[in-house]
Amino acid sequence: MDESGLVEHWRSSCARPEVAAALAAVERMVEDAIEARRPICETSGRCCRFESYGHRLYATGLETAHALSRLGDVRRGAPEVTAGEVADAIARGGCPFQVDGLCSVHTIRPVGCRVYFCDATAQEWVERTAERAHEAIRRVHDEHGIEYRYADWRAMLERFAV
Fold first, then answer.
1. How far apart are CA 26 and CA 136, in angstroms?
2. Which of 23, 2, 10 lies closest to 134 in space, CA to CA?
3. Which listed residue, 46, 88, 120, 137, has the most CB atoms within 10 A of its CB?
4. Is the dihedral of CA 61, 11, 130, 43 positive or negative?
5. What is this structure's pTM?
6. Mind listing the pLDDT tens digit for each residue in 128-137?
C-alpha cells in the first residue's frame, strides 16, 4: 500500500465505531493505571522538547489518525495539522502541539504521551504500562485488519499533514 493509501486506510479505520471504541478502551486502561499509581510530572512539558530532553515519542499510524480525527475538538478553527507546523516543530526539536510550554492536545494525545512520566519512582511502572498499552494497540490493529506501522510521532504527523 502506498503512503496516501495508508493514511486513508488509517483514517477510515479509526472512523469505524468498533475501532474507535477499542482505541478508547486502551486510553481508559491507561488512565485507570495512572489513577491507581498517580505518578507525578516533574518537568512540566520539557519532555515534549524531544531533542533537548533526549527521547522520542512513537505512535502507530492508527493512533495518529485517531488523535487527528479529534483535533478539531481541541483546536477550534484548526482541525488539521499542517506541514509547516510539523516542520517548525522538528526544527525546534519538539512537538507541534506544545504551545507556551503546555500540550494543546492533552485530551487526544497518543498512548506514548499518556504513559510517559519523568517521576523517578515510577520508571518501572512507566515501562510496564507503556508495554501493556502498546500490546493493546497492536491487538486493535490485528483484530480489525489494520495495517501496522510504528514510527516517530512527528514522522507520522508528516504523513497526515496538509
1. 6
2. 23
3. 137
4. positive
5. 0.88
6. 998 999 999 9
